Structure formats: C-alpha cells, structure tokens
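Follow-up to my earlier ticket, as requested here are the two runs.
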Amino acid sequence: MRACLSSLLLGLFALQRSLGSPSTAGLGLNTHAHNRTGLPAGPVLNAHAHNRTRLSAGSVLNAHAQNRTKLPEGGKDPHHRPKRGWVWNQFYVLEEHIGPEPQYVGKLRSNSDKGDGSVRYLLSGEGAGTIFTINESTGDIHATKSLDREKKNHYVLHARAIHSVTHHTVEPESEFIIKVQDVNDNAPTFPNSPFTASVPEMADIGTSVIQITATDADDPTYGNSARIVYSVLQGQAYFSIDPKTGVIRTALANMDRETREMYSIIIQAKDMAGSVGGLSGSTTVNITLTDVNDNPPRFPQKNYQLYVPESAQVGKAVGKIKANDEDLGINAEMEYKITNEEGAAMFSISADSDKREGVISLKKHLDYEKKKAYTLSIEGANTHLDPRFSHLGPFTDTTMLKIIVGDVDEAPIFPMDYYIMDVYENAPAGTDVGVVTAQDPDNARGKIRYSIDESADGETLFSIDDNSGLIKTTASLDREGVAWHNITVSAAEVDNPKLVSFVQVTVQVLDVNDNTPYVQTDSDIIVCESTKAGQVIQTIRAKDRDNFANGRFSFALPADVPANPNFTLKDNEDSSASIVARRSGFSRADQELHQLAVVVWDGGEPALSSTTALTLRVCPCQRGLRSPTCRPQAFFSSAGLSTGALIAILLCVLILLAIVVLFVTLRSKKSKKETLIISEEDIRENVVTYDDEGGGEEDTEAFDMAALRNPEAAAEAGKKCKRRKEEAQCEQFGAVGVKTLSPSLSLPVQDIQEVIQLKVVEADQDTSGPPYDSLQTYAYEGQGSPSGSISSLDLPDPPYEPDTLDLDASWPDVHSLAALFQERSSQHTL
C-alpha cells in the first residue's frame, strides 16, 4: 500500500513538472503516522509551494519549495528548474511531559539534503531556542520544557536551510506549526459554587428545582477529556439530577417544610463520560422548601381566662389572644371575631399589625357591682387559603375566653353630670344656694368630703359644707354685674383623698327690682314751627337695668308741677309715651328751647320711678322727611347771630381773602425778576459796540460785576458813609471793596459824589428788589479791572493806579491808549 502511494505521489510530481506551473499543487495520501504520541494515523498532504508555505493546524504536510531561477541569455530552457523542497509531517507535542529526556517532536528535511552534512537547518519563531531546539545537521526537533495546552495550544515557528559552508540558502524560510496535544489533566469545576435554590413544599415528584453547569478546561474536540456526566453523591433520596443537562428535580413527594426546611445535596461532575479514570469535581446545592398554606390555625387551649379591672378605659386594649399557625408570611395571617352576643356587646377583637394576634378592646364601661364576668367565644381563621390543600382543613379554630371584672376602689360619683342653681341678687352673705351629693360606688360606702376648686374658678363668692355638700353665698350678688356664676365642686373619699371626682355647678343670680327706670333720649326733641295743636311730636321709651320680668313702664307728668301750656304727655300703655303739642304757632325767634318733666314707673314690686327733664328745641323743619329735622340755618341761629351779623362776617372774610391774594400777587411779581446772570440788559450792556482797540471795561459803560457780587464790601461802605465821615474814608473803602474808585467819585463837586455813594449803598442794602435796578439808574459802578476780568470771585485788593512809566516799559505799543484813558478821565471829572 505504501509503495502504491509513493508511486502515486511521484506521478503527481511528474505531472506538475510537465505542466510547467509552479503554483500547481499535487496532492496525495500518506498513511505514515507518527505513532509515538499514541495518536491515530492522520492523512499526509504533499504540497508544492512558491517560497514560503504556511501549514494549517491539524494537517500533515510535505512541502517542496521551488524558486524560479533566471537563466542568462543563451542558456537552457527557462522553464527548467532544479527540484527542491521541504519534507516534513505535522508536528505534535504532548502537554505535561515529565520525562527525563527532551520530548521528540519531529524532523525537518529538505529534499536537497544528501545526508553529507552540507545542509544546515535553522529554527526561529515562538519558543525557538527556549522551548524547542533543532539539530542543525539532522533537522530533528525536541521540546525541552513541559507545556500546558490550556495556556497555549500551538506554536508558530519558521525553518530555513542553508549550505553549511557557503551559507547560501538551500531552502527558503517556511512557516510550520507545532500543536500541543491535549491530555486529560483538568477536572470539571463549578464556577458559581455553592448553589442556592428553593422549591415549594408538598411539591410533586419531578418538580424542577435548579440547573447547574460544570466546565472542563480540556479540549472538547479531542477525545472525552471534556465530556461531563452529573450525578448525586448525597441526597439521592430527596433529589435527582439529569446526568447530561444538570437539571435537579425532586425525588420525593410531599416534602413538608414544617418537618424539614433545608436540604444540602452534593453533586458530582465527572469527565471522560463518567468512565473509570476520569477526573471529577463536586459542589453543594442548598435547597430550601418554601411555605404553602397547608396548616390550619389552632388555639393552644380551648379555654382562657382574663382579668380586667372595672376602671379600664373604653376603647383601650384589655388583652390579647393568639391562634398558632405553623405556616409563614401571608399563609399565617389571621382574622378574629367574637361569635356570641354577650361578648360582642361589651368587647371587640381585631388582628394586630402583623395579623398574628387578636387584640381585645373594651366597648362599654365595666361595673363590677352590676356584672362580675363575661364569656367570649372567639374564632380565628386564615385570611389566605390555598385550594390545593383545602382537604387539610378546616382552616379555622374556636376557643372560649372568660373575662373576670375586677373590683376597683373608685372615686365618688355624682348622680348628675352638672347642677344648675339660683339665688336672688342682693341676698345677704350665707344664703343657701343648693346641695350637691356624691356616692361611693364601692361596697365600702366610704365617707365623702366636698370642696370648691378655687384654682379652677377663681371666685370666692360661694362656700360649701365639707360633709353635706350645701353651697352658700359668701357675699351679696349683683345680677346687673354678673348674672351667672360657674363653680367646680370636688368630692373625695376621706380614706383615699386621691380618688376625686368633679362636677360643674352653675348658679343663676335672680333679679330683684333694685334699679329705677329712665327715659331713653339720644338728643334734643325737635319741635317744628309748623306743629299744630294735638300733633304728636315724638314717642319716648324707658329703659331699666333690671330684668324685663318686672313688667311694663308707665309714664305721666309730675303732679307737683304746674301744667305745661305748650306740651302734654300721653301714656300708650305699651311701655312707651307720646309727647303731644297743646298749641300751634311755635317760633324759634320767640323761644327756641322748652323743658318738659316726665315721670316713668316700672312694673316691679315695689315699683320704682324716676323723673327725667326733656329738652325740646323749636326750629323750622325740612319737608319730605319722616322724622323732623331742622333746616341748616337753624345751626347758625343757635349761636345767637342774626342774619345781618352773618352777612357782615362773610363780607369781612371776603375782604381779608382779597387782601391776602393781592399781597401774594405783588410778592410773586417781585420774585419773578431775572437773575443777574441771565438778564438781557447785563448781556446787552457788556457787548462792545465799536471796533477801535484799547480801553477797558469803561468803554462798555457796563456794571462792575465785582461790585454787585461783593455784599460785604457794600455793607461796610454803608456803615462808613452813614456816619458822615470824610470823603477820604469813603474813597479808601471804595478802593478796598471794588479795587479802584471811579473817576467820578473824586470830582471836586463833593455833593454829587456823596449823593451817588449814598444811593449806591442804599441800593446794595435794599432787600426788597434786585440791586441792579438802582445801579442802572446811576449808570456806573466801579472802575475797570487791570487784569481784564470782571469775575465775582475776586477778593478786594489794595488800590491800584496805573503808572504810565510802567506802561512805557511794559507796553510801548499801547502808550497812545494810556493817553486816551487819561484824557477820558479828565472829561469825566469835568
């Protein structure tokens, strides 16, 4: 067979060569197997590759590498090439090799190697020189280290053949792969171990619980090293597992959680399909049985007894009762009820917040003296039923509870919730008001002591007898002051003062006729001048601070007073009376005010009366009104003024108003004068109206603004000139106040100069008008400033007289102007 295959390969090589295609590959089968590794024989693939040939994993290659050789011109057939190529099989190396010698991997050989040592083999790539070594003469490859396929399953290397002497390339570099052959060196593991699962109790056989999975690091594509089989090592009686899928199921029916809640089973995973020699791993699975409602509630006892004192408060819990249920959660929730009428009338029961216990509460007050015991029939039932387990029921239970009422030493009890008593006002201190009584509800019938709680009432108008409970007044009472009094009475046992009860007592003060009536009038009674005889002027009523029960009021005129010629009184017998005019022709001018005395009686016993003097005012009334109302002029005449006097007063008022308006108008006109800065005449007088050069402010014939704005200097000048001092003194002030005097003030005619000075001073001191009115009248104020400024900010300086020598020295060009100035000054002097 091997000879046949060799002949077939040689035929394929010959066919490829005859076709002249370097890229055509000839394939053949090689039954030679590398059995050192114990692996089954694999196919051998012979390939002709151009330059570098890469072998795929899992195949066995014989490679003949061919290089095209360029022939010189005139050479032989260009398609003729020498036959060269690599010859090797697929390389395998066993993992975890622990032998004393390096592990033989395989052999590299070139078909150009004649075995004379002329060919040298070189190895490079992954692990070359460290893990893998090569015999450079024979091409044998060895593994020097133990390898682990789970860390790296193959290595890529490169082989090259050179001439040992010339170092020329015999075979080009080619790539090949050394695969690490797997062995069963890894046991199965459970990544998420241990496992936790749950299944309802009472589940049927075969109920799925959980699926677990184990992993094996060995090669799943080679052999049975990674083929896992599951089994139960511990807990087979309760659970089973599928050997292939790892699904755990129940193996026992009706497992009861109340009997056993937790199960721990051990699961084994074994490779090599579970055969002998396979590796195994195990894990623990904790399985919990979850609760279902399969247990009915049960009271531990069929009869209970509970002691409740008679002082227990209504609505408060007096006891608890519980029916046991072995289930959990909502499966153990309970509801309770009282099934007999006797117990339901006095007590109620409800489940607590956890819905486990029944809380018994009191619905009505207990009285040991009336009933000393009660019997309650109590039923407890589950609120969440599971129909699958109804055959385990019934899920209810009943018990009897006897409640014994305990006798308690109670505080005294008043037979009434409150008392209402009365007493007449003005009664003397010590008058009996009423009696309160309290009883001891206990059998002992202890002695009771009464008192008034003054801290609660704050009144000391009443007292109470400690033993009898009789209430008396301690002072005379006034109904018109306070008509009702509230007091708090306490009753306590003498033997046990802490047992105290209270009751409210209300005392009404009864009225006696101790206040006289009086006529109620808010203002004077109006009598119109047009009133006729017999006409009702006004209806009057009386008031009394006493109670209305004293009867109606009666009215009359005093008997000891002469009859009133103007008015009379009519009793209407309904607690009112009417004032009637006896005559007509009333006039305010004749008599404005009239007096009428009225006597009023009340209906009390004894009857009390009082006399009231009413004032009636006569006036002309307005028409069309329901009640008489005086016209407005009546108010003026009430002051005693005639019409003529009123007219005179009005005229005087108008004249005063006219004078005030006129005065205000005159003052406003004066205050509307323009200010000096914005006056048109100031602007007009300061404009130079000629074109010649030279001169000063005197050419403008304007005001000296510095003089106008220096009130202190003006006031000082007034003082000096009024004292009629010599001219030199006034001239000196003028020099100080306004810098230099005008030439006109030094004129030989002193009368004119004095008049002008006085007028200037008077104008400056006049506060009723702007000062420039007078200044404009006399047409001159001050002299020109040598600095060329009329600023009002300049302060007074010593007198300054221009010197013509200075002018000659400083300004030769203005000498003619200086002469003109002196000439003009002479003209002013004349």
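Run two:
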Amino acid sequence: MSNPVYGKTKKTSSKASAGLASPLPWTLSIGLILFLLWSSFQVALFNGQLLQFEGPIYWALMITTFLFIIWTLVYYKTITLDSQRDWLKLVVILLPITYMLSLINAASNYLAINMILIQCIYAMLFVMTMYLLQNKQINHVIQSSLIGLAYIIVGFGLLNWLGAFSFTGKLVGWFSSGVVNGVYNQAIWNDANGPRLASVFQYPNTYAAFLMAFLFISIFTLIRTKKVYMQLVHSFMLVPILLSLLLTLSRTGLVMMPIVFVVILLLLKPVKQILWFIYLAISGIGTIAILNPVNTAGLELQQQFSTGLAVKGWIYLIAVSIIVAIIIWAIQRWISPKLETKLQAWGKRKGASLLIPLGSMLLAIIVAVLLLGTSVRNILPDSISTRLENINFQQHSVLERITFYKDAAKVISDYPLIGAGGGAWTALYEKYQNNPYVSAQAHNFFMQKFVEVGLIGFIVLMIFILYIFYQFVRSYLRKTEDERDSHFVYFILSMTILILSLLDFNMSYVFIGMLVFIGFGGMAAAIEPRPVRRLKVGPSTARGIYTTIAGLTVILLLIVSVRFLQANQYAIAAKEVTQTSQSFEEIKAALDKDLAIRSTHSDSLLTLSALYQQGFEQTQDDLFYTAGVSLLEKALQAEPFNKSMVKQLIQLYELKDHNEQAYNLQKDYADNYIWDMDWYEILISRSFDLGYQALGQGVVAKKESYFSSGLEAYQHVVEGVEHLKTLPEGQLQGKPFELTSTMILNAGKMKYMSNDAAGAASILKGGIAEDLTDATNREIARWYLAALTKEGQQDQAIYDKLIAVAPNEADEIKQIAALNF
C-alpha cells in the first residue's frame, strides 16, 4: 500500500479521535457495553410480536437514542461527507425508510411500526460504532467487552445446564425480563429431541449461531494477542463454547460451520490457517472427551438437582479446559513462531492461502461421512448422535424450510415492490402456506426481509451489506497484518451470523441484529476513506444536513419510545386489572390509557372488545354491542389479517343473532386461513343453516347462494386433504386438516337439498363410521341411505347396522327420501 493511503488512514484516525480528551467518548463506549449486557438478558430482545416482548425493545430504542445523542455531542465537529465511507451514515437511514415505505401495504400496522423502530436502533448503532471503532483504544475495549459478554452468556448457559436454575435466576432476576418464577425461562429448551441448551436466547439454533461466531472470534483473538494471560483465557473458553454448541443439538449450526470456517480461512495467512486447524482440533478432542459425562449430568440435573453430580460435571469441564488452554498456550508460545518462520516463504506463494481451505472442505466431507454413515457416531451421546443421523435433505426441518421459502415467494409475488411491512410473514403466512404448519418466522433473514420491504427495500439492504463487505475485504487485502487484524473480529461476527441466518430466524432477536450492525460499523471503520468526487459537500454543510436529520430523528424517537413504553406498561397493567377486578369502569380506564397512545395495540383492542362483549351478555344493552362492533371494525382496517379480531367480531354478531353478518365475515376471511379446519367446518355449518332457513322461507336464490358457498368450502377441504397426501415422505403436515363428520353431514345435506341425491350419497358415504351410537354418525348414515333410496339404490349392510342400533331410523329414511326441494 502506498504512503499517501497510509497518510489518509492516519488523518481519519485523528479525526475519529477528536474529543477523546473529554469523558464523553468513554461514557458512550461504557454505555454501549452495559447496554449490550442488559439487552442480552432480555431474552436477547426477541421480536416475538407479543406484548411480553415489546417492552424491552422500546427500552432499547430509548437507550440507543440517548447514546446517539452523546455520539452527536462527541463527533459533531468531525462529521463530514468527504469520503464514500462518510456517506454510509446517510445510506443506512434508507433501511428504516424502506420500512416506512412498506407501511403503505402493511399487513399489520402494529408490527410494521415496531420494525421501523428496530431498524432505527440498528442504524444508530451502525453510525456510532463506525466512528467509535476508528479509535484504537476504544476499538480494543469494545472488542474485549464483546468477547467478555459472550463468555458470560456461555457461563450462564452452562450453569443452567448443570442445574443451577435458582442461582442464575437470582443472579439476573433483578434486571432481566426473562426470569419467570425465579428461573430464567427456557434457558434449557425442551422439544421432541429432549433438553437443548439455549442460554439467554430461549432458542437453541440462535444460540448456536452466536456460539459459532464467538468460537471463531476466540481462536482469532488468542492467535493475535501477545499477552499470555489473554491467550490462556481465550484457550480456556474454547471447550466450554464447543461443548455448548454441541449441547444446543443444532443441526443448522453443524451443517453451516464448515462453510463459515472456510470463508474465514480464505482471508488468513497459511500459518494462521494451520494454527486455526490445530486449536480447533485440540479443543474439539477435549470437548468430545467430556461430552458424554457432562451431557449425562445435565440431563439428570434437569430432572433432579444433585450437588455432587453438578460438581462432578464442573470438574470435568474445568479440568479439560485447563489442559486444553495449557496445550494451546504452549503451541502458541514455542511452536507458532517456528512454524511462521518455516512457512514464511511458502505463504508468499500465489494461491498458497487457498490450499488449506480447499483441504478443509475435503476434511469436512470425510468427517461428515464418518459421523453420518459409520459407527464413529456412537462416540457421541445418543441425543447428539440421533440428531446427526437425521441430517439429510429428506428430513422434516429441511423440507419444511424449503416450504417456508416457497411460501415466502408467493407473498413476494403479491407484494413485489415495497413489501407487506414489518411482521408481514407473521400476519400473512396462514394465507399463503402450502400445508398447515405453525411458524411465525420464515427461517431465513433475507427471504423474510424481502417479504417485508419488497424488491426496493431488499436491493437497498443488499447494496448496503455487500458494499461494506466488499470494501472491507478490499481494504483488508491492502493493509499490513497488524492493520488487518484490528477489525477482523467484526467481519467474523457479522458474516457468521448472516450465513447462519440463511436457515433460521436469528435476526428476529434484536440483540443479534445489534451485534451484526455493530459488526458492520466495525468493518466500515476499517474501510479506506476514498474521497467522493460527484457528491462532495463542504464540512459545514455536511454537519448541517446530518445534524438536522439526526436531531429531528432523535426528538421523534425519544417521544415515540417514551409513549410506546407507557402504552406497553398500561397494557400490562390492564391485563393485571382484568385478573383482579370485575369493575367494567376500572378495566376500561386502564385499557383506554393504552389505546389513547396506540390505537392499534392488538392486545388491548382484543381485551376491550371482550369487555364490551361481556357487558352486552350481562345487560343486553345495545351500547355495549355497538361499541364492540365499532371498535373491531376500525381495528381490522389497521390489522386486516388478525384472526383473533375477526373471530371476536363474529362472536359479537352471533350474540345479536346477526347470522348473515357472521356468515359473510366467515366467508370473506376464509381465504386468509386456508388450512384452518375449524374455520371451514364453521363456514360449512353456517352455509347449511342459512341455506336451510332460506329454503323454509321459499327464497330459492339465497338458498342456492348459501349452499354453493358451503359446498365450495367443503371442496376446498377435500382438495386440501388430497394435497397433503403429496407432501414428501419426511415432511410432517403440521396441524390437523381433515374432513370431519360435521362437514360431511352438512355438505351431504346441501347436495341433497340441491336435488343432487347421487352427489349427496357420494359425499355421505365417505363419512360412514363403525360407531352408529354417535348421533352425528347415525345422521350421516340416515341421509346416505335416504339419498340412495332416492336414486333407487340400497346399501343393505349399512341399513341393517343402523336399524339394529335405532329401529325408528327406517321411518326417518323414508321421510327424507320422500322430500322434494
């Protein structure tokens, strides 16, 4: 690299260091570190689209805004738009703007606004860290703090694995929203595979992504650092991290790990590549050595705590970690320098850095074959061995993810340009799903992003991400080794999480998203500041533009965060009041406080409408009915896909015997819930009831209209059941979806009353059951036999069984067969 470029780097560094004599930069840095620590224990700020999760996110918005104010005070005089890197702080504003644009088509106004606020958090963190991390001292402190935070989370997870639930609950309960009844909720996640380690995330796959990022960061840092005690600390933590990774039982993590590893190796010198292999192998052997006893101890401690067993588990873990740390330190101290000297010339050869990554791919294939296809797998605990055995492309989780992505493509085709707003997948997936799975997440960050912001927002995001990665790698390759290493941690952090987010919803955790954008900020800080030519703006003008935008944004975000926090607290208080009070006025007053701030706050809207419904049921006062209907009709304009609101409105219509309005709503919204069996059963029943009523009134056109829609709904279920038979063998269908006896009976009746006895018989025959003591089954048999009689046919076997159970059915059959419609 030429001297002028070095000169530019120094100039930038001094500019970024402006104001460091003041305590404000360090206040900002310490505040950021403490904020990350707090955030991690708020269930990693999971954006779960539920009331319980939103409060910490609004707190995070407020804290980030205050930190951004401090940043503005520190760096106001250094704000310029001289280089391409400088313009990134304006480009990042486009990310929340694309979410604002998607509000036009928002499937859920409530969820969409939350996502705008989350994007603002990311944008502010990116700008702050892009400046902060240009300073060598602050960069070192923040890197060390991030690694330290990761080690705390690893320790927290293992404490829970080895039975210390109460201790960890008390340890963080005073500030964590994740603690329920004195225990951090779902730090150990239980599913069909048994207990899985999830630590602060409550979801093992996201924890695996986090662990993998910091496993590689730890290896990189221990090789880079010259301090013996730091080498020992990082080496010591390799076994706990790898052990935790295996205890997550995350197949996604294990499958993607070689890919991430190879990408990182491509940017390292051959000597470091070899050391990475050695250290990963040593820590891997150490982990395998204690995996069975620690895994077994953890499984037993989940059932019943035993001090002796917990201590035994810790002894295994600590002893092996110490041994591994000493071995790695010895290699780093004595063998690494010799290795570097011997391979120095070879490392300079063209293409030398490619040989080991290519070899690692081959090695990964060999290891995969051994673990997946041979008895070598048996050295692992049964829970892990079984998970490895099930890794294949015909496995349920793989097939289901492919289905998610295909269904996401359907949403994108309907909302191509600006998307369907934040939270769109959660709001819309039931309308587009291929089969009745339940998943509020698309399990792919990029697909979910495309669904939310459309082609325009997706292009903006990809240009932003790819530009940062491209410019970072470009600058990285031009720098000396010391300069390269200074910010490489951020590349590992963002790249690892994004790659693993191709197969999971890691970025739905705002804490994880914050780490990714801090990583972007760190990479941007290392980019060579190439001057712009066409968009050159004077320093005073640049400061004016940016501080105006930042100032207005900060004021707005502070107001919004405070108000939304108030709304959240009012909503929670209202829920508590409903559990302790029977007073209509007291409960309504609490709900009104929330809705005065956020008129589309789903939880409070549903609670208030239920309150109106209860009031009407108790008093029969139409004021309650009218208020409830008006509230829900207005709410559905902002939340058109909220099933709970639609159901509640239908219930209100039913209370007033407004059956036609209830039917119309059931019918109009059926396409939004195409795999909801109960929805279609009710729709078919309503169609029959109203059609039969119209028949009695002699209104033939109405009868035909109702029967037609009911039979269409029945046919939808028939086709759905047939479609589910085409699912790949390894894929589970999800929720039940089948023809119920009620559907068959009502559809058969509608066919019969439409003067199609043959069609009625065909439908009803499918509902004939062995147990004719059941009233519905008996009625199906009755109408089936009547339809056959009408056609001049008979099913003697069914007739004999029915008459044996209920002799009076003979007359019933004759009466129905004699009916004409």
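The only thing I checked on run two: The CA atoms of residues 246 and 384 lie 7 Å apart. Let me know what else you need.
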